[in-house]
Amino acid sequence: MPIPIRRAESADLDAAAGTLAAAFDDYDWTRWTIPAEGYRDRLEQLQRMYLGHARDQGVVLVSDDLRGVIALLPPFASPPTAEFQREVARLHGERLAVLTQAQIPAQPENAWNLATLGVHPDSRGIGLGAALVQAGLAAVAQVSGAAASVAMETSGERNVARYERAGFTVTATTLIEQGPTVYSMVHIAAR
C-alpha cells in the first residue's frame, strides 16, 4: 500500500521541524555543528527556518501524519536574507567557525539540492524515507523536467546505501578533521 505524501502547507512546518529535530537528534553532522547547550531547541529552530526557506523557494513534502519530511531547493533559489543568515549564525553559536571551515565540494551546477530528509525515529523501517525520496525526485522532474539532477550530502554512512538504492551515487568523500565524514552524492535522471 503506498504511503501518502503531499506538499507541505505553512501550518505543517512547525510539526515537520519537530520531526526533523527528532530524526537528527543523534546525527553526526548536527551534533558537530550545533552547540551542546540548548542543542535540541537550536536544532528545531534551524530546521524550521530551513523548511520555511525551502517551502518558499522549492519543494517541501511531508507524509500525511507529518512523521516524514523532505525538502529540495532548485538551482535557481534565491539565497536566504541577511537576517536569516544572522539567525542561523546565532543558533550555531561557537560552532559556526567549524561549520564554515568545512571544505565540502560544491554541488554540480544546475542540480537541485536535497537539503534535508528525515523520518521520526518512531516511524522508521516502514519505507517512509524511500517513499519521500521517490516523491521528491518526482516533484523535481515535474518542475524541471525528467533530466533534472539532484545533489545532496550525508554524514551518515548507513544513509549512503539507502540513497544508492534510490539511484544516487557517491561523487566525493570528505574527511573533516575532528568532525564527521561527509558523502557527496548525486542522482542523475535518465535522459
Explain what the structure shows.
The protein is of the alpha+beta class and 191 residues long. It is built from 7 helices and 7 strands. The longest helix has 19 residues, at 39-57. 41% of the residues lie in helices and 23% in strands. The chain has one domain (5-188): Aminopeptidase. It comes from [Mycobacterium] wendilense. This is GNAT family N-acetyltransferase. Residues 3-190 form the N-acetyltransferase domain.
Can you give keywords for this protein?
alpha+beta; globular; 191 residues; GNAT_dom; seven-stranded mixed beta sheet; Aminopeptidase
* CATH level 3 topology: Aminopeptidase
Strand content: 15-25%
CATH superfamily: Gcn5-related N-acetyltransferase (GNAT)
Count, helices: 7
In short, what is this structure?
The protein has helices at residues 13-23, 28-33, 39-57, 82-92, 96-101, 128-144, 157-165; strands at residues 5-7, 59-63, 68-73, 112-119, 149-154, 169-175, 181-188. The protein is an alpha+beta fold and 191 residues long. It has one domain: Gcn5-related N-acetyltransferase (GNAT) (Aminopeptidase), CATH 3.40.630.30.
What is the topology?
Layout lengths: L4 E3 L5 H11 L4 H6 L5 H19 L1 E5 L4 E6 L8 H11 L3 H6 L10 E8 L8 H17 L4 E6 L2 H9 L3 E7 L5 E8 L3
Parallel strand pairs: 4-5
Antiparallel strand pairs: 1-2, 2-3, 3-4, 5-7, 6-7
Helix pairs in contact: 1-3, 3-4
